[in-house]
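Quick one: structure for this chain?
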Amino acid sequence: MRPTGGINAQPEDLKRITDAIVAGDITLPIAAAFPIERIQEAVRLHAERHVHGKIVVNL
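Got it. Here's what it folds into:
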């Protein structure tokens, strides 16, 4: 595995990462999930910077 980030990312990296997530090789911690109607609450939670994981907004 090699690190990728903004400046050195290649177009194929997104597919490689997506495939690894789908296969279960990478897991992403979800801190909270909100429906779009509660977007303000999601933004407030994010602004507090005490979140351990991703904040998901369902569209």
